């Protein structure tokens, strides 16, 4: 057209349909509602990837293929940070006291978090290492040894006492009150080595994958009641839950 040709003549010369000159992509406009919903869901569940978010999008009326969800997920820059590869422990180093049956070795540990209003949350989780079942979740702003004993007593009253209790060397787990109660209950301790959380892998895995991924983001808005309801009962009390 700069050389004196009309638009029609130029298109005929290069064999290009004239409609292509007026074409404007509608992809951005079409994807905008789904992108807004995706960003909102990702902000609510920051540990979810695009596969889980796709389920929520379908529920909200945005059905789409996994490929399209992945494209929008990358375009919005919502990729989860890559996990650092963990140091693999040599197979020659056996796990101390591995469980060989149910109700033989229980593991318990704490998960720390906070609500959006700054309120601190502390969750006590108790796991059967053999069945990978979560036996109790206790939620409160502060959990000391007396409350740990109360939570364990409740579980033992319905499940029976384990042979061993595995934990780290935290002050709540090695306090005088805990050790005296374990001696009276005839339960042996299986303390992990300092700086080796992999020795309590069953509870660490549950705390990271199940509790944090499914409950922690909800707890930011709903507080301790949401985590307790996820365990099967509302309120700060300990309650049984299957993992």
How many angstroms does the end-to-end distance come to?
A: 70 Å
Low-pLDDT regions: 219-243
Query: Tally the helices: what do you get?
Result: 8
Our estimate of the beta-strand percent is: 5-15%
Query: Percent of residues in helical segments?
Result: 40-55%
Largest sheet: 5 strands, mixed
The string of secondary-structure elements, in order, is HHHHEEEHEHEHH
Secondary structure category: alpha/beta
Strand tally is 5
The largest sheet has its strands arranged as: 3-2-1-4-5
Mean pLDDT: 77
Using the alpha-carbon principal axes, give the shape.
elongated
Report the C-alpha radius of gyration, rounded. Answer: 27 Å
Write a structural description.
The chain has eight helices and five strands, in the order ααααβββαβαβαα. Helix content is 41%, strand content 14%. A hairpin with a 5-residue loop joins β1 (105-114) and β2. Mean pLDDT is 77; it is low at 219-243. By secondary structure, it is α/β, with parallel strands linked by helices. The relative contact order is 0.11. It has helices spanning 7-13, 27-44, 50-59, 66-75, 145-159, 176-185, 201-222, 224-230, and strands spanning 105-114, 120-128, 133-140, 164-167, 188-191. The protein is elongated, with a radius of gyration of 27 Å. Strands 3-2-1-4-5 form a five-stranded mixed sheet, with helices on both faces. α7 packs across α8 (224-230).
Kindly list the characteristics that best describe this protein.
single chain, 243 residues, alpha/beta, 8 helices, 5 strands, 41% helix, 14% strand, elongated, disordered C terminus
């Amino acid at each position: 057209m700069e050389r004196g040709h009309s638009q029609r003549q130029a298109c005929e010369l290069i064999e290009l349909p004239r409609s292509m000159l007026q074409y404007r992509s509608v992809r951005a406009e079409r994807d905008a509602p789904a992108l807004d919903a995706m960003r909102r869901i990702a902000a609510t569940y920051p540990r979810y990837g695009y596969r889980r978010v796709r389920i929520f999008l379908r529920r909200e009326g945005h059905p789409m293929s996994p490929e399209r969800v992945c494209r929008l997920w990358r375009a919005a820059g919502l990729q989860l940070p890559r996990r650092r590869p963990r140091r693999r422990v040599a197979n020659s180093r056996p796990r101390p006291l591995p469980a060989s049956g149910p109700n033989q070795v229980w593991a318990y540990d704490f998960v720390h978090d906070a609500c959006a209003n700054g309120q601190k949350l502390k969750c006590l989780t108790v796991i059967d290492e053999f069945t990978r079942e979560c036996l109790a979740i206790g939620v409160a702003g502060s959990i000391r040894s007396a409350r740990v004993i109360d939570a364990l007593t409740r579980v033992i009253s319905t499940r029976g006492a384990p042979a061993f209790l595995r934990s780290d060397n935290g002050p709540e787990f090695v306090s005088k009150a805990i050790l005296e109660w374990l001696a009276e209950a005839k339960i042996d301790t299986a303390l992990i080595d300092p700086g080796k959380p992999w020795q309590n892998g069953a509870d660490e895995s549950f705390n990271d994958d199940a509790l944090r991924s499914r409950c922690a983001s909800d707890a930011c808005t709903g507080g301790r009641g949401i985590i307790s309801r996820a365990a099967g009962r509302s309120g700060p009390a300990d309650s049984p839950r299957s993992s």
